[in-house]
Design goal:
Elements: H1 12-34, E1 39-44, E2 49-52, H2 54-60, H3 64-67, H4 79-96, E3 98-107, E4 113-124, E5 130-139, H5 141-181, E6 194-200, E7 210-218, E8 221-229, H6 234-253, H7 257-271, E9 280-289, E10 294-301, E11 306-309, E12 315-318, E13 335-341, E14 346-350, E15 358-359, E16 364-365, H8 367-377, H9 383-396, E17 405-411
Antiparallel strand pairs: 1-2, 1-5, 3-4, 4-5, 6-17, 7-8, 8-9, 9-10, 10-13, 11-12, 11-14, 14-17, 15-16
Helix pairs in contact: 6-7
Length: 427
Amino acid sequence: MGRGGQGPDGGQDVEDTSAAFAVLLEDSVEELYDQAPCGYLSTLMDGTIAKINDTLLGWLGLSRRQVVGRMRFADLLTVGGKLYHETHFAPLLQMSGEVNGIALDLKAADGQRMPVLVTSRVKAGDECGPMFIRTTVFDARERRAYETELLRGRREAEEARRQAEADRARLQEALAVLQQSLLPAALPTVPGLEADSYYHTASPELIGGDFYDLFPLGGDRWAFFLGDVCGKGPQAAAVTSLARYTLRAAALHDPDPVTVLTTLNTVLHERYTGGDPRYCTAVFGVLHPGEDHVDVHLASGGHPSALIQRTEGAAHYLPTPHGMLIGVLPEARFTSARTRLFPGDTLLLYTDGLTEARTGPERELYGEDALRGFASEQSAAGPRALVAALAGLLAGFGDGLDDDTALLALGVPAPPTAPAGEDESLT
């Protein structure tokens, strides 16, 4: 056989090959239509099905005789699909001449729903206007299953998020209740003395170890303390509870400040001598109100020095150097100090969350000098006014305040001032 498939007789083989190729091409086009991996159908302008391929008939479980010339495209759809076809699909197709990728549900002969994506285009004649509609139908069962699974996953994730938020809210509520149980519900009224306190929680999800109290010793004496347990969480809360009750019990036995702190040191060291050592800092003191003053005797174990705001406006620290951390060593040294508060004076105790707050763009420590300056700038209006000013200061630190802070202020009320122009000799 020569090149090009020509035989000895000159072009007969070429003609036969061309004829066979034409038949093969004709068969392939028809087979491509009927056996395509998607559904094809053509309808008249009123929707009557004029042509449909085997693939779509197989999906529907219908025969060609049941469909062609007897059914409209909308008849293949579910009730909801028919409604969407009449109100959206058909009007849009008539207006624009084509619609693409519309999600619908076919209704098979056995009643099963089949999700599909439908694309339709109007075929128009040269002069006689629209003639028929060609429609391609894609099987969307896997896509629908994926979307359903994705939606289910989103719903489950949303439910998990709501559950986590509810659990977090319950946890925060429980921690808030526990935190309050470690603090006095309200400070008692002390004759001749004004007292106020404040507790700032850095994180509602972590219980802190700051604590304070004010309570009577009998007679005309009162005891007070403020401290800070190392760490956070349930373990710190346990140490806080132990420290509070130990300080109160020790004070009723012997209120000497150094003796009270020594007792607390013994209890903590004996209780936490294992592999999880715990310790705290604290200031303990005794108030002895006088006729026009209050005597203060206090001791400190590793705690920041108390700050005194005097009535003339100056503020200074009451030094208690060399006081050791409480609970670290079997025997610890504590430093005591004495002072006297006169009308208008305020004694401020605080935990180091205040002075260790970070401020400014460089996130520098706020520090004790800044606190003394702040107190000096405030008018000597008593403990409530000073605590209110400090609460505003703490709020202004924002995220620079990463530790809980407790405040306890004790002072002698200033005598009321007479209204301007009133002759005090006549009162």
